Every structure is written in C-alpha cells, then in structure tokens.
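Re: the multi-chain job from yesterday

Posting the exact lines I submitted so nobody has to dig through the queue logs.
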Amino acid sequence: MTAQGLPMVVPSEDLPPRVRIHEVGARDGLQNEQRTVPTEVKAEFIRRLAAAGLSTIEATSFVHPKWVPQLADAEELFPIVSELPVALPVLVPNERGLDRALALGVRRIAVFASATESFARANLNRTVDEALSMFEPVVRRAKDHKVHVRGYLSMCFGDPWEGPVPIHQVVRVSKALMDMGCDELSLGDTIGVATPGHVLDLLSELNEERVPTSAIGVHFHDTYGQALANTLAALQHGVTTVDASAGGLGGCPYAKSATGNLATEDLVWMLQGLGIDTGVDLERLTATSVWMAAHLDRPSPSRTVRALSHKE
Amino acid sequence: MTAQGLPMVVPSEDLPPRVRIHEVGARDGLQNEQRTVPTEVKAEFIRRLAAAGLSTIEATSFVHPKWVPQLADAEELFPIVSELPVALPVLVPNERGLDRALALGVRRIAVFASATESFARANLNRTVDEALSMFEPVVRRAKDHKVHVRGYLSMCFGDPWEGPVPIHQVVRVSKALMDMGCDELSLGDTIGVATPGHVLDLLSELNEERVPTSAIGVHFHDTYGQALANTLAALQHGVTTVDASAGGLGGCPYAKSATGNLATEDLVWMLQGLGIDTGVDLERLTATSVWMAAHLDRPSPSRTVRALSHKE
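And the result, structure tokens for all chains:
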C-alpha cells in the first residue's frame, strides 16, 4: 500500500481510547443484498473479518427463512465458524429462534425492536408493545442461560412513514428493552436522516433516564452521508460501541438508496487517524471487502475501500 | 418531497449560528469533470445555484486554456452571470490572469498555492516559494483594486507523493499567503485523508501563529468518506466558511477515486439538522444537481442527492 494507505495519527481531546466495532456485514449486510451467497463463502467472510481483527462479528439470523431467505442457512453456518476466537452474536426474533440458537451453543443473541409503530407493523406485523411482549420471554430465557443480549432499536431518528421520531418515544422503548434485561442497546438510524445534534440529544435523554452510555451502541446509515459525523458526535459523548458493515454491505430496503450501513473501513480510517484503538488491520479488512464485492458482483460503496483498492 | 425531505432540526451547543458555503461546483467541480459543458449550461448552472440560495459561487478560472480546457470560456461566461446578486470569485494564477479578470470587472479572485513541493511542482511547475513569489504581485495589484483575495492551499493534510504533511509546513505557507494580503484562506485536503484531530491541530496551530479562525475556510474531499466529520470538527473550532461542490461534482485527478469534493447537499443536510443557517433551499439545490448530472451524463456521487432524488 502507498504512503496514503493509512491516515496520519493525530489524537483529539476527550475521545475514548478504544472503540469496539460491532461488525454487522455478515448478517445485516448480506441479509439486505440481492444476491444470496453460499454458506462456505459466508463462513470464509467471517473468518477473514476475524483475521482482520474484528472482535464482534454478527454471524447470522434465526428469523424464519420465509422472511430472510438470504440467511436460511443459519444452522449450517454457525457451527462452521463457532470456534473462531471472537464474539459471534446472532439475531433471534422469538422463542422458536432462541431454541434453534441455544441448540447450537450460541452465547450472544440480539432482538430487534422498533421505535415507531409503522416500522413495527411493517417489519414484525405487530405493535411496538406487542413486539416487546414477544421479546420478553426470549430475553428472560437467554439470561437464564447466561447468554448476552443486545437490543436493536430501529428508526430512532426518522421513519419513512412517520417522519421525525420524537425522542421520548425512543427513550421509552429503550428503557423497556433495558428493563427486560438487555445487556446493551444498538440505536439505529435506519434511514440515515440523523444529524449530530439529534444524536447528542437522544444520548443525553437516555442518560437522564438512567440508561448509561456504556450500554449504548450506535448504528448509523450513510444514506445522506451523515454516518461518520454522527459517529464523531457519539464518540464525543463517550460512546464506545459502534456498528458498521464491512465494505458498506447492505443497502437499506426502506430508504430506496444505494447506500445503507456505515462502512467499517470508513469508520476505521477515522478512528485510526484519531489514535483510537480498534484492533483492526485496515489493509486486511479492505482486501476482505474487495473479495466479498467480487462474490456479490457489485463494487463496494465504501469510499475508503474504493480509494484504497484503486491504489493497489 | 416526502416527510424525510429535510432532517429534524436539533441544534448542538457551541456551533456557529450561520455558515457561509463557498460553492465550488462551477469551477473546481467542472474543471475536474471529463465532459466539457457549453457556456450557456454553465451560466444556467450558476443562475440555479444562486436561486437555490448560495451566496458565494466560484464561477470560473483564468488559468491558461491549455491547462484547463474545460474552463477556456471564462471570458464568455463571466459577463453572462456577473449581474447576479451573489459573490462570484474566479481563480487567477498569475498577472496575466489577473489582467483578464480585472478587464471583466471581477471583484473577487483566488490564487492557489501548495503546501508541498511535490504538488507545487506537479500543478504549477514551480517550487512552493517560486509560486508564492508569482502570487505576490497578483495579490498586491488585486488589493490596489480593492478586489477580495482568497488563498487556496492544497495538500494541507496529505500528499500523494510525500504522504502526511507536517503541520508546520502548512502553517508557514498559510502565513505567507496572509502576510501577502490574502483576505481569507481555504485549507484543502486535496486527497481526502484528513481526520478530525488532524484538522483541529492545524486550526489551533494557525491560531497560535495569529491566523484567526474567521479568515479560515475548510475544503474537504470525501475520498475516504471523512469530509463531513472533518467539517463538524472545524465548526466546533469556530470555522464559519466551508467549501463544497453541488452534487459532489469533480473527482480528484490525483486520488484516482470516484469521489472528490464534499457535496454541498450532504453539507446542507447536516447544517440544516444542526439548525445552522446557510440560506440554501435544499430541494432547489438538489434539483439543480440532478439537472447538471444529466448534462454530465453521470449520476451525482452525493448521497443526499441520491436519496432525495430516489424519493421523487
């Protein structure tokens, strides 16, 4: 790689020394790609992500295959990768999904709630509170098995049907997930409309309601190009868990745009420049995304992947 | 436009109430596009940018046509747009260019220096100091005519040949431009490698050397997806002049990547969400970029333009 293969390191004040990247490319990314990839390619993707230094790699989903055919091979995939020395959370929508996950020895699960009624209806065919009721026994039983639980919360900033989402609404569902026993939250800007002041307001309101920053991860989408600026604001607030997708995999089906998840490479470029430790080797990660882009037969939307791979 | 046509407004503390966008699409953008557009299309582009609320629109360049054939029509273009009620700076490389500009009644010019020897050689075929010597009479004579002078400084963070650029080197050339009589500086991250801590360090060092923040504009490229995060850091430092290019026009020929200038729409989305006044109507601006993309026969790389135009 050239002289510009890495940014110059200039730390900034008051930022955390270390950030944990929650890599969602293999699950959230591939679930939203048109092309379904073979199980062995998924396993190799996860292996390469682990080899690039990612320590938390969301592996797959135990949603019914009818809803997410791209990840219908969860039972085949998980055992292939389960011995990797990284955390491998999986998505679990209900008790049936939990049973399937527990049978495979899964140690971390995630449930996915919505901050808005419209998206709860569209995604889960339930009201917000009906969905929470569905998750309650899932979380309780997971905790009984000492399984770590993440609570995803979608549409925390804007909703394609409802427009801007009131912060108190997000806080209410966040508290319900924490009270239920979730170990951490992931606040999703599912359609990518958030801006930094909005992010800071939500984080402050959550703190006031005794949801600690240490339990909060942020999940930004780059639909309007705002993901990294929002991430910077969240880091300044003290957030140390950031979701990202290798190569920017996964458009958002609800935003009708080419770009969805924040690309892990764009995030790592910024964190590396800020002297924030992530454990990630950017060169290996970029090579992994280029390799996966070839399998998906479309170029990575990550700007860093494009810039670095043009140089090689 | 839908409920998501504008972000929810949530101001953040300690940010400036108003930002002046220095729109560079018509000059820096079109100069770096492969396709040359007819003079009347350029004029209409500038008219539409003005109608969208942009108050400073860099119009063209008086560089010799041999070097920038895309803007060889400067003499024809400028008189067509000169009556618009906006500031219309033009690029001027030397005394000959200044003569041409003054003959047309230009009221604002910009000179372009380099922070690195490699880029000064590549772009101007001179050393850094030889280029400064060339600009000295240009700036002096412009000031004699009460013409406002902007000093562009390229490669302020990284250089494709030299790698990371030492901050003291950038400060030295910045001071030389200010001492020469420039009214403002534009600090360019020409290859897009900067991260927020690096930006803040450079701004602080400039302040220590008595270059006030009020005289500093920032010019970020989105090659690695960092432009908006860097802009947020600069705003937090107090910067109120931000360069951007409508629709993200203009790749950077030295970075070999698809993306160059920060897109004005992505910037406006963030500023609008932060409650920072820019005077820009995002819907009109987006429509202008969609219109220009059709003339250039390539889609806008701006994420906000893509997201908003997909909805329409």
